[in-house]
Specification:
The complex is a heterodimer of chains A (135) and B (226).
Chain A lengths: L24 E2 L21 E4 L12 H9 L4 E2 H8 L3 H13 L3 E6 L10 H13 L1
Antiparallel strand pairs in A: 2-3, 2-4
Helix pairs in contact in A: 1-3, 2-3
Chain B lengths: L27 E9 L5 H8 L1 E10 L18 E12 L4 E7 L8 H7 L4 E6 L8 H10 L3 E6 L9 H8 L7 E4 L4 H23 L13 E4 L1
Parallel strand pairs in B: 1-4, 1-5, 5-6, 6-7
Antiparallel strand pairs in B: 2-3, 3-4
The chains are: A alpha+beta (135), B alpha/beta (226).
The structure holds guanosine-5'-triphosphate and magnesium ion (MG).
Magnesium ion (MG) binds next to helix 1 of chain B.
């Protein structure tokens, strides 16, 4: 950490803090080997990812975090679920998942009728309502 | 309800304890946002109605009002983590509601654009002692066309008002539901979500009235790609 940076208060451990609401300054992209932007369209926070079952061509090339992500996705998981379970920021999950999608190891479960998305499908909303009321 | 074409992924060579097998996982995810001013009860509401879980996102330092814009030439990669409220309500048949609350300070609102895309709707929490703190959230969801309800969190020492008075003070249209709640109580928090889903359903049904899209009973609602 560069001590010459102005206006950078220090936390108890010497780390730089912006204020209490924002956490410590981190470099989560060490995990993603420096990339900050996944290729292709950004993954929605509740996009549901599922492992395709295809074997990794070179399993050694996957990072530990990618192997954990792949393991989670043996059952469908939303991007937010994955970030929460792996305790990694959302943006990091997007990059890691983006690579796994590009290499065909993970697929995105898509709603195939673009004219009606889940959030404006009256039939689905009716069911959700019934179940919520019954909770 | 539409059916799902399920192609269970084949198990790969993974350590057994890597595998999460608590449930079959969601097949449809619906987003609900919980917004409102600082300290209005967002975290409390999400926690009352769902099991709250840790979730971090990151904000680029350019969003933060601190003089840290040129760090070692890697400013673009410098981020600070931001904790969000995150809860999930799992319903039957793989339907899950995901609740997201962002910190009340305005500088965290950059998350809303992404969160509100494809969202079922939003709960705008309000405190009668500080109604103006909810104006910006209301404007935002009105402009984006996101269905929203206003839930007035009834703190003990706050004066009580009728819903109509609140509606007038917030200058919201008659179609937007306004209700009183106690964000700490599960039943009350759940009722807020019920009213929101009712509202979203009314809007969705109105939209789909002219020509309901034909849906062959056998067509899969999902495909898997990638
Ligand atoms: N009396 C009363 N207190 C409440 C109620 N809801 C929340 N509180 C309290 O109000 C305080 C703020 O609630 P939070 O849920 O943290 O508010 P928040 O909107 O998440 O706040 P920020 O994330 O900081 O914007 C906490 O101390 C809660 O215990 C309520 O319905 N009644
Ligand atoms: Mg909070």
């Amino acid at each position: 950490m560069d001590p010459s940076v102005p206006g950078a208060p220090r936390g108890p451990g010497g780390e730089r803090w912006l204020d209490e609401a924002a956490g410590p300054v981190v470099r989560p992209y060490a995990v993603t080997r420096g990339r900050t932007r996944p290729r292709g369209e950004p993954l929605d926070i509740v996009a549901i990812l599922v492992a395709t079952g295809r074997p990794a061509p070179e399993p050694g090339r996957l990072t530990r975090e990618q192997r954990r992500l792949l393991a989670l996705c043996r059952r469908p998981h939303a991007v937010a679920d994955i970030a929460s379970e792996l305790r990694l920021p959302l943006g990091v999950i997007r990059v890691l998942a983006g690579d796994l999608i590009d290499s065909g190891l993970v697929g995105i479960q898509r709603w195939s009728t673009p004219s009606v998305q889940p959030h404006n499908d009256p039939n689905l909303l009716r069911r959700v309502l019934d179940e919520l009321r019954a909770l | 309800m539409s059916s799902v074409r399920s192609e269970p992924p084949e198990p790969g060579p993974l350590a057994p304890d890597d595998v999460d097998d608590r449930d079959d996982g969601p097949r449809v995810a619906l987003k609900i946002l919980v917004a409102g001013g600082f300290g209005v009860g967002k975290t409390t509401l999400v926690g009352a109605v769902s099991e709250i879980r840790p979730l971090q996102t990151e904000e680029a330092l350019t969003n933060v009002g601190a003089a840290v814009d040129d760090l070692e030439g890697v400013a673009a990669k410098r981020t600070t983590t931001v904790a969000m409220d995150f809860g999930r309500i799992t319903l039957r048949d793989g339907v899950a509601i995901y609740l997201f609350g962002t910190p009340g300070q305005e500088r965290f609102w950059f998350m809303w654009n992404e969160l509100s895309r494809g969202a079922l709707g939003a709960v705008v929490l309000a405190d009668t002692r500080r109604l103006p703190a909810s104006f910006a959230a209301i404007d935002y969801f009105e402009q984006r066309g996101t269905p929203f309800v206003v839930a007035v969190n009834c703190f003990e020492h706050a004066d009580r008002y009728e819903a109509a008075e609140i509606r007038g003070a917030l200058d919201i249209g008659p179609h937007v539901p306004v209700l009183m709640c106690d964000a700490r109580r599960a039943g009350s928090a759940k009722q807020v979500l019920v009213v929101l889903v009712e509202h979203a359903l009314r809007l969705a049904a109105a939209r789909s009235v002219p020509s309901p899209p034909p849906r062959p009973a056998t067509a899969p609602a999902f495909t898997q790609d990638g």
